[in-house]
């Protein structure tokens, strides 16, 4: 075996200029340099793909949680059903209360109409009783009957009105005659021909009266 000679080894190596001008060497270097960016691009694409997969997985997890929230437990379903029944019951109760109040008002109206019909039918007889009281003496039995009739109408809220000397009010008095009176300072009731009747604020019949009027 020959002895290694360093100077001979270094002289046999190609210098940098010859490598630069050698096409084969240049092509090999270019191929090496082009492979590096390609590897980097592949890595970036892989990272992007992983990010997209992670986003899809996160969205799927959110949808699963929403579906789980929609599915109530047996206790939750029972509470929801109880709340629905309670709401329906309260609505029905409110409608029943309104119906009951409306029925009570209608009942009062029908009752009042019935009393008015009876009173209107008995007005001629009541007027005759008043005339007998005013112009003749009544025996005890007749007085008792008249008193019972008056109490019966009072029980149903019927009020009799019209008195001599009270101020004339056209809303409750029906003036059949105006009589000049030199002593009168304002219009007053001089004579009650037929008494008036009312129920509450509703006048069933105005009192028919003779009015004393001041002289002009």
Automatic annotation (TrEMBL):
The segments labelled Disordered in the record are 1-76
Cite the entry's keywords alphabetically. Answer: Chaperone, Cytoplasm, Stress response
Described by its record, this protein's role is as follows: Participates actively in the response to hyperosmotic and heat shock by preventing the aggregation of stress-denatured proteins, in association with DnaK and GrpE. It is the nucleotide exchange factor for DnaK and may function as a thermosensor. Unfolded proteins bind initially to DnaJ; upon interaction with the DnaJ-bound protein, DnaK hydrolyzes its bound ATP, resulting in the formation of a stable complex. GrpE releases ADP from DnaK; ATP binding to DnaK triggers the release of the substrate protein, thus completing the reaction cycle.
Name the domain of life.
Answer: Bacteria
HAMAP family tied to this protein: GrpE
> What does the subunit section of this Swiss-Prot or TrEMBL entry state?
Homodimer.
Q: What family, per the record? A: Belongs to the GrpE family.
* Listed name of the protein: Protein GrpE
Biased composition, Low complexity: where in the chain?
A: 24-36, 46-63
Q: Which GO terms describe its cellular component?
A: cytoplasm
Q: Which gene encodes it?
A: grpE
- InterPro entries linked: GrpE, GrpE_CC, GrpE_head
Biological process GO annotation list? Answer: protein folding
Places the protein is found: Cytoplasm
The record's GO molecular-function terms, alphabetically, read: adenyl-nucleotide exchange factor activity; protein homodimerization activity; protein-folding chaperone binding; unfolded protein binding
What lineage does UniProt assign to this protein's organism? Answer: Bacteria, Bacillati, Actinomycetota, Actinomycetes, Bifidobacteriales
Kindly give the PANTHER family that the UniProt entry links to this protein.
GRPE PROTEIN (PTHR21237), GRPE PROTEIN HOMOLOG, MITOCHONDRIAL (PTHR21237:SF23)
Stored NCBIfam families: PRK14157.1 (NF010754)
Is DNA-binding found in the keyword set? no
């Amino acid at each position: 075996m020959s002895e290694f000679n360093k100077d001979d080894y270094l002289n046999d190596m190609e210098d940098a200029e010859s490598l630069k001008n050698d096409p084969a060497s240049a092509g090999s270097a270019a191929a090496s340099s082009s492979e590096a960016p390609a590897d980097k691009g592949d890595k970036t694409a892989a990272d992007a793909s992983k990010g997209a997969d992670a986003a899809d997985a996160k969205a799927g997890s959110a949808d699963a949680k929403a579906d789980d929230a929609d599915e109530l437990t047996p206790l939750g379903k029972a509470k929801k059903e109880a709340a629905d029944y309670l709401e329906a019951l309260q609505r029905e109760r409110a409608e029943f209360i309104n119906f009951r109040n409306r029925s009570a008002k209608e009942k009062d109206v029908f009752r009042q109409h019935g009393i008015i019909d009876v009173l209107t039918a008995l007005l001629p007889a009541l007027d005759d009783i008043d005339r007998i009281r005013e112009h003749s003496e009544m025996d005890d039995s007749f007085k008792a009957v008249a008193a019972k009739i008056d109490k019966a109408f009072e029980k149903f809220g019927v009020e009799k009105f019209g008195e001599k000397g009270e101020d004339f009010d056209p809303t409750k008095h029906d003036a059949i005659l105006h009589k000049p009176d030199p002593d009168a300072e304002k219009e007053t009731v001089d004579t009650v021909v037929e008494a008036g009747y009312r129920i509450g604020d509703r006048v069933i019949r105005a009192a028919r009266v003779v009015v004393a009027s001041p002289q002009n």
